[in-house]
Write a structure and sequence with these properties.
Helix content is 3%, strand content 51%. The chain is mainly beta. The protein starts with 12 loop residues before the first helix and ends with a helix. Keywords: Signal.
Length: 639
Amino acid sequence: MMLSTKKMFLLPAVSLALAALLSACQAGTEQTVQPAAQVLAVNASHYHNVQIAGTEYQLFTDATGLQVQQGATVLSRYDGAFIRLTLQPMDDSSLLLAAMDDNSNSLYVWRFAPAEPTVLQLMQQQLISSRVVDDLCFYRSSENQQLSLFLLGGRGGADQLLLQQQQQWLAEPLVVRELNVPYDSTACAVDHIAGALYIAEADRAIWRYQAEPEADEGRSLLQVNTPFGQLQGEVKALQTLPDGSLLALEEEPVRLLHISSDGQLLSAMPVPALKEASGLSVSMTTNTTTAYISTEDAAPVQQLALTLPVMAKRTEKAAVMQIMPGLQTEPASQRGDVMDDPAVWHHPAQPELSLILGTDKRAGLDVYNMQGKRVQQLSVGRLNNVDVRYGLNWQGAAHDIAVASLRDDNSLQLFAIDATGKLHNAGKIATGMDDIYGLCMYHSSQNNQHYVFVNDKSGLIQQYQIGSDGKNWQGSLVRSLQVPSQPEGCVADDKRGLLFVGEEDEAIWRFAAAANADITGEAIIRVDGERLVDDIEGIALAEHNGSSYLLVSSQGNDSYMLYDAAPPYTERLHFRISTNPQSGIDGVSETDGLEVTTRSLGPGFEQGALIVQDGRNRMPEQGQNLKLVPWVDILQLLE
């Protein structure tokens, strides 16, 4: 697999200076210590001392290749001009090694399992054409059950390659994210528990990024060079420690820096035995921490016994259930926060001809077929939420109806859907709201009337009855409701006459949906900050075997909650939507709106689908889109 060429990124000098000033506020007082160095009888450009099943092994690279030893016994060799050897423990009996061949710019990944007949097994060999790789670092996400490898380039770019997902190896590594990093980046390391990626920008700064492939692309400054911080030389290697702190190796003069996770310099350790250094690894036992420092020209390795503070034990995050999307729509025509809410129109006779409607917050409504292709665009203005109901005459003929909240003039935008699935602009209904936002529709089984619930950022919720004079549709306000703060997502249960509303930062509310019902609501599910994390965004209902379920997008932790839609509203599932490597579809993050249908949408979605907005559309980086998960996959988790 060949990686595409990326654009270079140059950090503006002004931005760096401002960031450096912020770092100066966090800097601690340097404590200079000088531990005694011991010269090992090993010449290596990169050196690791590891313990597997109680036995120590030495893994290192020199001018001729990679070598694995147990004491003086050579267990395995692999010829090549390898640089930047990095390790990742897999279990108690094996670990992964990755390195770049400097001559061919090829990535090599091996599995080292000393108890097996072939102790060193080549897992991957791949030419990297996207960039010259200056460093490698593994990331193992316990929460999302993924193993990836960062390839750091020195000219302003990095790739994140997915190697393993839910214990399954990919046939070949898959680029799941492309990062813009500072020009002249020299080293990387990952804190697996915090999900933090650290990148050294030569002798200027150390930055922290999020390591999850679906995470926000923002970064924060950890440390900078003097006079604003404590860096003095070019940082050539980084290593994270169990407590979340960081070791940084300066090349010349050689210094080993211990930096806290909040950027404070805890200690600086000169290594005068070396004129320059480029390789760093750490070995930790119950009582000792040892650093191994090496040079590019494979001089003798220096061993330093470190005296570090007692490290607080941290626990890995628990695994979150993962489900893969089976289809995605074409991306939005513009970049940025564009798409918001989906809805489904079911073809009356042929499910595979059903359509997916998606709001565009800058332009209008996009309509997609069941292959994910855009088949219609209606440029009516900035739409936020949309919903669909069936059987309401328009222009003297049978049509279905879609209604969306139009933010340009705080109105309800109406669409008539004919029998072929073509949408027609059917006019607008003024609301008198100040900042229109979320919307959902309701069809009453008691009086056979159609209604629209629409809310305002103030917490106001209005209910409009939709009627027809035989030619056009009109709306009349029949009721007003209120929640304490900003709502958006809502869904009506036509069968039971209920309305569920998401108050974004606080709770899910239940109201009676009938136009003549009491206006008092009840908060039934509260944000807990751990599983249901604000913002509460999309809300949808699903029926299965006589049970009704409430599905909610928990935007703050990129996940989804499935509850019983009846008291006591028991939680049934907590899951995320992850990468589909076989189909080349990225995972889902920062979801706004969602929809569920349990009716067939054709091949692959015979039992319906969960449809979600994807806030960060990657593989490759494109405008936002919608992802579809077969509903049967969620049903299997419920059983």
